[in-house]
Amino acid sequence: MAVNINTFVHSANLFPGGFSGLALLIQEVFFEFLKIKLPYSVLTYLFNIFPVIIGFRFIGKKFTIYSIVMIFVSGILTDVIPGFNLTDDMILCAVFGGILNAVSISLCLFAGSSSGGTDFIAIFLSEKTGRSAWNYILAGNICILFTAGILFGWTAALYSIIFQYVSTQAINLMYKKYAKTTLLIITDNDEKIYHVIKTRTNHDATVFDGKGCFRGAHHKMLYTVVSSQESGSLERAIREADPNAFINVIQSKEIIGRFFKRSND
């Protein structure tokens, strides 16, 4: 994340959104109008005080402590690592900077932490609603970019929206904890497969009696909904338990009712 800020973001004078973008915006305001260079780390630490409190109270202590480590280290590295220019093409900076930003955030999420700032808010909203909130964060970031456009011109601000859009969509593609997948499994080993589902995901399943129309053979069909993040490994485990199982995988748009969620701690 620090390398991304000191290469693609600075090369095109982008504002990445979130509290990182707000810190960079305030840095630019102080340098442009007052000729004072504020350290990025100090600003980002100040902005993250409130989100850290939200993390401790509503998300999880272990998750928040790991996130604090990420915020502290990335803040220091952003100030220490020298900036360098890879390209002057703003569209390349916006696209590849957005991808690298998404990879950085996704690595944090996979490790059970976050990059701080609006990530805490997105995760808090996702935990409460059961849906991905990254697109809502994108809408909030546009307010920061609007301010940047008024102060420093619309070119960088508009390219920053591309940066944010690419980053948001890449996160949605890579991180699927809050997406849901429905599995319909036709099998003759329903108890064995239910055991696999329960032990691997802690989710339940419903068994239906079915009859194949072609041969008239009787089978069982298990219906279960799991996190899309768990779906791939679960499908492989089901195939190992019953190589003849027929699995229909459906992306679930919305789940209403009780759904097991793993604790962040």
Could you characterize the architecture of this molecule?
By secondary structure, this protein is an alpha+beta fold. Helix content is 62%, strand content 12%. The chain is built from 11 helices and 4 strands. The chain has a 4-stranded antiparallel sheet with strand order 2-3-1-4. α1 packs across α5. The longest helix has 21 residues, at 90-110. It is elongated, with a radius of gyration of 23 Å. The two termini are 24 Å apart.
Question: How would you sum up this structure in a few lines?
Answer:
The protein has 11 helices and 4 strands; from the N terminus they run H-H-H-H-H-H-H-H-H-E-H-E-E-H-E. It is of the alpha+beta class and 265 residues long.
Rg, Cα atoms, Å: 23 Å
First-last Cα distance:
24 Å
How confident overall, as mean pLDDT? Answer: 86
| Separate helix tally | 11
Helix content: 55-70%
Tell me the total number of β-strands.
4
Largest sheet: 4 strands, antiparallel
Please supply descriptive tags for the structure shown above.
four-stranded antiparallel β-sheet; single chain; 265 residues; 11 helices; alpha+beta; 12% strand
Question: What does the secondary structure layout of this molecule look like, with pairings?
Answer:
Blueprint: H1 2-11, H2 18-34, H3 40-47, H4 49-59, H5 61-80, H6 90-110, H7 118-129, H8 134-152, H9 154-174, E1 180-187, H10 190-201, E2 206-211, E3 218-227, H11 228-241, E4 246-252
Antiparallel strand pairs: 1-3, 1-4, 2-3
